[in-house]
Amino acid sequence: MKMSLKKIAKALLVTTFSGAMLMTTAHANNPPPTIKADAPNRYIVKKGDTLWDISGRYLDSPWRWKEIWATNKQIKNPDLIYPNDILILCVIQGKTLIGVDTGEGCAGVEKQLTGNVVSSTVSVTSTANSIPPIPWSAIQHWLDKTIIVNPADFNTTPYILASKKGNLITASGDKVYAKGVPLIVGQRYGVYREGEKYVDPKTQNIIGLEVTQVATGLVTSTETNGVTSLQLIDSYGKEVREGDRVFVELNNSIPPVFYPAPAVVNRGGMIVRVMDSISSAAKGSVVAINLGSTQGAKPGDVLTVYQKGAVIRDIKDNDTPVRLPSEHTGMVMVFNTFDNISYAYVLDSELPLNVGDQLLPPPYL
């Protein structure tokens, strides 16, 4: 999905983030989102649809979906959409909205929105089988046993010293020994392998360490010399090695439901890594960005990607160096956040996206 660069240019303001001139959006007194001229009056949701795709059928700015969605107040999870739901475009109380047709057309949507439905209970709907915001298949790999932690914290945790059998390769049922801060007998712990370090392109500081859980162990005993015995009860496709770290299992789950919305963060950001690639990202790729929960990022946040303009020589002004304006090159949606890093899915790219590309909330169009 692409936006007109002319529209974006009209919506942008120049401001300063951390001393660098970047582009950001005006959030005050926003006009209602623009419904596309070819938006369908009626759309039957299909298996394989995503909320981002559906929103893009109706809006030039699909990150503003919740502003046009007619919430059903009789449902506990009112924003879920399922295959075979019939979406209809309605004008209710002077606003253009989209809702699910339950058989009464726009009159029924208005009843759902206002709560004027004859019912003494609120229905509870399941998140299972609902339309996801982005394709789960594209991001699942980055939700399985991989997390980002503070390197300083990671390096203070107990480490695997040896295995009972003395072999390097271990599996479920084997006993291993860890050394460090005493662990609690009878408690489960994760065994984690150190991976990629994340470096902020601007400050060059390490802002996160990617670690992967390779096993789960149950503490069976501790010794006064700091050695702890663990019985491995689960392994995840990799052997446990000397030097792997042991700490409480961390939950890497994301909210079962989240929706595209303009990011509200306390500063601009950058792409710090293109996952599974040594070069650039395109639509459908996953990137890591230097905005995490500390900066206000959350699942569903949409950010616009800009590439810094090239520096050229002005031949009419004694070859004075001039930097060209930053250009909009794509959009990403955050799906998993850590302290200072988030994973984001590339929704759209007009050019290849690279490490160092700038990130800002999208314009209100």
From TrEMBL:
It holds the Pfam family LysM. SMART domains: LysM. It comes from Psychrobacter luti. The keyword Signal applies. Keywords: Signal. This is LysM domain-containing protein. Residues 1-28 form the signal peptide. SUPFAM superfamilies: LysM domain (SSF54106). Residues 41-89 form the LysM domain.
